[in-house]
Here is the input.
Amino acid sequence: MTPLGIYVHVPFCASKCPYCDFYSLRQGEDAWEAYTNCIIERIKSYQERALPVDTVYFGGGTPGLIGAGRIGRILDAVRESFRVQPGAEVTVETNPGVGDESLFPGLAAAGVTRISLGLQSANADELRQLGRIHTAEQAARAVELAHRAGIGNVSLDLMIATPGQTEESLVRSARFCREAGASHVSAYLLKIEPGTVYHERRDSLDLPDEDGVCGLYEAACSELERLGYGQYEISNFARPGLESRHNLKYWRCEEYLGFGPAAHSFFEGRRFYFPRDLSGFLAGGEPVDDGPGGDFEEFAMLALRLTEGLREERCRERFGHGIPQELRRRAAVLARGVYWRVPAEGVALTRAGFLVSNAVISELLL
Here is the structure.
């Protein structure tokens, strides 16, 4: 079978950012230890099946907060319970300033091959607006420490269209990523999510209008590509060959298993998830079934997030047929605008299309 991805959600943060709606809590050592033990037990429940795995991703929250030792123990359980393939990609998210100088050597010793750091901006005023508790200098230092520990693949997160951001400040943040030595950049448009502090304050935030958002996105994409980061997904850019293999599983509708509160899975044709409830997870709560997954519409919707788009050969591999003619006909009509490309090998969004992807993908997949 095709190797799975493993996702481990670590729901702990040192503080809650005002824009964040991910499931995260402020907890201490006791909760971290109980969580680690529970995750290991859940992972070992798959031991008898010896399923192949080629990516492992620790997301959050701030996984680095629980320390390299606990992450190493979880990775040991993954290796004992799954057939981890040679050259597997193992990613850990963390934030600049988290842990001491032993964190990255400890992660490297545990088998981590990739780090994802929450930079968000290299501008001090923007970091303050975003509620971030690190500096750009700490981010540069974290990249340096990761590289020194032997983890050469480091991704930095940027946020686009944040309060008070300008094209000039965003371009400076993009250049900071290159100067710091990042091999990958995830550049996300800020979305004001219900239940966040930003949502409560949305009428008073200094946010760009629609044209401003488009200009910022275009500026980020152009500068990152000029700096040598090729765009391969709406929000993701990488040096050649250093795309996130784990996240590509999501966009290519491949299967993965998620562990931890708020973690989602797609496995054996079904989607399921653990509720956003640490106490319930620790008490042995079961995942919630979310129905079947992987049909053509879902496959196409996810593929169209990629710059390669929906490709003829991938459709044939997956479904035994190419792109349906009716979809190609509809795409050709839509391509008279600025949002679609319809080369012989498939259907893809343009950069302008990425900015309105939800609407135009829905129009295509009617």
Observations:
- The first strand starts at residue 4 and ends at 10.
- The chain has two domains: 4-250, 310-366.
